[in-house]
């Protein structure tokens, strides 16, 4: 059965009840006026009610996954979640990574240079 556009709001409300008023992706409260229908772009089937931002993120993620060498986007996403969840703190930092202190120092240095430049420009 294909849903009619006039029935979207009804389905959003049905899904919101099933989802206990929560977005299926972020788990935060989802109000009717914030909700959009998420659907599988391959099969067309509706999956859930989501925040529009969560729905856009899901769409970008699936499009990005399809550009990888993976043949199975669901398996790729599962492996990605495992990769993110693991603790890597015993391994060294990547050479281009800036620590919080390094970022603060760089920001302060930039601000000092801008102030010095403004003093020169005023004279």
Question: What can you tell me about this protein's structure?
Answer:
This protein is mainly alpha-helical. It has helices spanning 8-18, 52-66, 73-85, 100-122, and strands at residues 35-39, 46-51. It is elongated, with a radius of gyration of 23 Å. The model has no long low-confidence stretch (mean pLDDT 93).
Key terms:
123 residues; two-stranded antiparallel ribbon; 4 helices; 9% strand; elongated
List the helices and strands and how they pair.
Blueprint: H1 8-18, E1 35-39, E2 46-51, H2 52-66, H3 73-85, H4 100-122
Antiparallel strand pairs: 1-2
Task: Provide a short characterization of the protein structure.
The chain has helices at residues 8-18, 52-66, 73-85, 100-122, and strands spanning 35-39, 46-51. It has 123 residues and is mainly alpha-helical.
Helix content bin: 40-55%
Strand content: 5-15%
Give the beta-strand count.
2
Q: H/E order of the elements? A: HEEHHH
Report how far the terminal alpha carbons are from each other: 75 Å
- Structural classification: mainly alpha
Spatial strand order of the main sheet: 1-2
Spans where pLDDT lies below 50 across 5 or more residues: none
The profile of the biggest β sheet is: 2 strands, antiparallel
Number of helices: 4
Task: Report mean pLDDT, rounded to a whole number.
Answer: 93
Question: Rg, please?
Answer: 23 Å
């Amino acid at each position: 059965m294909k849903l009619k556009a006039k029935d979207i709001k009804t389905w959003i409300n049905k899904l919101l009840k099933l989802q206990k008023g929560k977005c299926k992706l972020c788990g935060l409260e989802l109000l009717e006026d914030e909700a959009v229908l998420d659907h599988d772009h391959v099969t067309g089937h509706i999956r859930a009610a989501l925040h529009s931002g969560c729905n856009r993120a899901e769409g970008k993620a699936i499009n990005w996954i399809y550009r990888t060498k993976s043949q199975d986007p669901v398996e790729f996403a599962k492996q990605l979640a495992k990769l993110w969840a693991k603790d890597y703190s015993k391994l060294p930092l990547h050479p281009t990574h800036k620590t919080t202190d390094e970022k603060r120092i760089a920001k302060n240095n930039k601000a000092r240079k801008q102030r010095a430049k403004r003093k020169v420009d005023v004279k």
